[in-house]
Each structure stands twice: as structure tokens, then as C-alpha cells.
Amino acid sequence: MGSKLDLLRQYVDVDSAIKYIEKRRHEDGGYCFVSDLADTNVNDTYYAIKTYELLGVEFPEKEKTIEFLEKAIQPQTAVVAIAMALEGLSILGAKDIAREHVDIVYTKYNPAEGKFAISLGGSEEFGTATPFEATYWVVKAFRAIGQDFSKEEREAIRAFVMKFREGNGYGVKQATTTMTYQALYTLYALGYKPPKSPHFKNCELCPMGGFAEVPYSLPPYIEPTFYATRGLELQGETPACPGRHIWFVRQLQNPNGGFRRSLELGISNFQNTYRALAVVDSMGRFV
């Protein structure tokens, strides 16, 4: 535990980041990035769990959070949120509880029947959730809880993902860092071996630091920086200027300990905070 925290402390104020998250934990076991006055939600709770896992620190009142996530898995819950809840339960050591709720996923996401998400609801990345996004999160959750797809389902998902192939990456009208990583992760997780994509390298901003969403463009944001970092790891590649990426992330930390998404002014949230810390953790191995 100490070595991970000590590494991150060299670059960012990780202790204030932990306090930022801890102060926003509610009595019901859930979290809300705004304050302890607003309603808790699955997204913030998921990223709180991911941050604690990344840092190797103890989960506070873990049983309450397990109960919160299980209660959140309802027919009216968006499929991305259900997938987050399942993965969160797995991280908290409640994989058996998560597996009890797999059937509800199939009411919303059934690739064998050509259903790549019904009643999508809110989105993690795109404003309005997309079937592509739902695919990534469901595959990620099923992998976390040890739930296998059938051969028919895997083939249907692969064919669906490949519809978004755009040049060297994946996207709707052009390849983006987020969708390229999510596509490649999905294919790898299902046992396929797609060719390496140069997209992530083409979005790396050196010596400025950070990564862009599309090649040879500005500005850098934390989400493409996170996904490009994960993409390079997935492909066994290394960043060209890891020190500058750490510098970029350091500029994103706000006085309350959380991180914003860009160099311009912005509020902290749990999603950006987890991604910022994850990038520093990864880049710190190369400097």
C-alpha cells in the first residue's frame, strides 16, 4: 500500500484526493461528487471504489456500499449503471451477489438477439448513452464477475463493434480515442486479437503533455489521456513523454483535492479524479 501511495505523492496531492472522496460518502454507503447534501448515485460510487482499489487503501464501511450497489440494480436502472454496479460489487468482494443479478442485464442487453441495449438512459461518456458504450461496460462487468458469453454472443458483439471501424481506429464518423480504446478492450476481452492501432500515438501531445480525442488536434483532456494510456498498455506500447503527461495531470488538481478534465477552469468530479490518478500511476513507471 505504502509504495503505491508514495509513488503518487511524488507527483500529486494524493492525500487531499482521498479526503475529497471520503468527505462525500453518505450514510447509505453511496457517494456523490457534489457534496454530502446531494443524492448518491452509482457512477460516483463506482469511481470512489475504483479510486480506493487503485490506491490500495481500505474501503470504508464496505458492507454498506455493497448493499447500496445491490439495491441500485433495478429494471429501471440504465444498463451502463447496472454494469458499473456489477463491477463495483466484484471489486468489493461480492462477486457472488453480482452474479445473482446477471439476468437483469439480458433484459436490456442481449447480443444474440441483436439487442445492444434497451432503454439506455444516462451515459458515462457521450451525453446520451449509446449501444456501443453499453457494450464496452457490459463486457467489462461480465469479465470482472466471471460471467462468460456464449460463442454466438461473442461473435455478435465482435460484428457489432467492427461496424465502428474507422481507418486506424473506431468511431462514428471518425476514430476517437475513447471509442478506439473501448472497441479494442472489448475485442481483447472476448478473446479476439485485433491489430495494433497507431491512433493513441497519433493523439499524444509532446512536449505539451496529455492526449487528444482525435489525431493531431488540441486540446488535451483527461478522458482521452486516460483511455490512450490504457490503450498503449493494452497494446504493450510505451508513451513518448510520460513526464509531460504527469505534468499535464498535475495542473488539473483543484484546491478541494479533486481533479477537473482540462487545463481551463472546471469543477472536480470522481470520474476525473480516478482517471487522473490512474494516468499518474501508469506514467510514473516510465519516468
Automatic annotation (TrEMBL):
Q: What is the lineage of its organism?
A: Archaea, Methanobacteriati, Methanobacteriota, Thermococci, Thermococcales
InterPro entries membership: Prenyltrans (IPR001330), Terpenoid_cyclase/PrenylTrfase (IPR008930), UCP016175_prenyltrans-rel (IPR016648)
User: Nucleotide-binding as a keyword?
Assistant: no
Zinc is among the record's keywords? no
Give the organism, scientific name.
Thermococcus waiotapuensis
Question: Which keywords annotate this record?
Answer: Repeat
> What CDD domains is this protein classified in?
ISOPREN_C2_like
The segment(s) forming the Prenyltransferase alpha-alpha toroid domain are: 12-79, 134-281
Quote the protein name from its UniProt record: Prenyltransferase alpha-alpha toroid domain-containing protein
GO molecular function annotations of the record: catalytic activity
